[in-house]
Amino acid sequence: MHGKSAYTKDIILNMCTVFIRHTFILKESCQKVKNIALVSLSITKYDKQETIMTLDFSCSALIIVDIQNDFCPSGELGIKNGDQVIEPMNRLASLFAANGGRVIATQDWHPADHSSFGLWPRHCVQGTPGADFHAALNLKPVSLIIRKGFRSSIDSYSAFFENDRKTSTGLDGFLKALSIETLVLGGLATDYCVLYSALDAVKLGYRTIVVKDAVRGVEAASTEQALKLLDEAGIIFTESGAIE
Questions:
Q1: pLDDT by residue, tens only, the chain of 244 residues
Q2: Which of 8, 56, 99, 186 could form a disulfide with 214 if both were Cys (CB 3.0 to 4.6 A apart)?
Q3: If one looks up domain 57-235 in CATH, what number appears?
Q4: Positions marked catalytic
Q5: Residues 190, 199: Cα–Cα separation, whole Å
Q6: What is the pTM of this model?
C-alpha cells in the first residue's frame, strides 16, 4: 500500500465488517465508491453508540419524518416526548443545508374520511392545525415536502410508498435524480413511519442511518421491536452529535 488514500480504499472495498478508529479522507466520488458516504464508524448495533461519522453531503439527504402537531404531546395522536426530536433534527437540517446536502420533510395529510381513523384517532386532517408541522421545527432548510396518506382508502406509513406497497410517493425518483446515496432519518414515530421509511430506503438501495436521539415511538415494546428489525436490516444507528 502506498499512502493513506490507498489504505483507506482497501479497507472500505475489501472488509465486510469494519471497526475504524481513525477518520480518513476519501478522494473518490460517490459514484466511484458506491454507497460509501461515511468514513468513520465503530459499531452498528442499535443499543450501542457510533463514533464520529463524516458524511459526503453532496450525495446525502436528511429525511424529517412527520414532526406534526398531532404526533407531538397534546396532539390527537400525541407521542410521549415526541417534541424532543425537534432540536436534534433542527441542528442536523442546518448542518445539511450548510454543506450542500438535501433536507426533505414528510407530512401525514389525511382527508376527513380517511380509512385509518377506524384504527387510529382522527389525526393530521388536511388543513387543520394538527396536520401542521410543529412550530419549533425549522423548515427553512427543507427543499421538498412529501405529503402522504391523502387518499381516503389507503394509509401511508413509509415516505416512499403508500400502504398498498405499490403506490409511490415520488420520493425515490427525486432522490435518484439527484444521485443521493445516503439517507439520514429522524422523526415520528420510531415504530411506524420511521420504521417503514427506513426499511424501504434499504430495499431501494440507500445506505440508511437512523438518528437515535431524534426518534420517539408510540409504545415501548413496539419501539424495541422496530429497532431490532432496523438493526437486522443493516441500518446504521447514530446520535445527532456524531454526524459532521
A1: 444 444 334 433 343 333 333 333 333 444 433 333 333 333 334 444 457 899 999 999 999 999 999 999 999 999 999 999 999 999 999 999 999 999 999 999 999 999 999 999 999 999 999 999 999 999 999 999 999 999 999 999 999 999 999 999 999 999 999 999 999 999 999 999 999 999 999 999 999 999 999 999 999 999 999 999 999 999 999 999 999 9
A2: 186
A3: 3.40.50.850
A4: 66, 148, 193
A5: 12
A6: 0.81
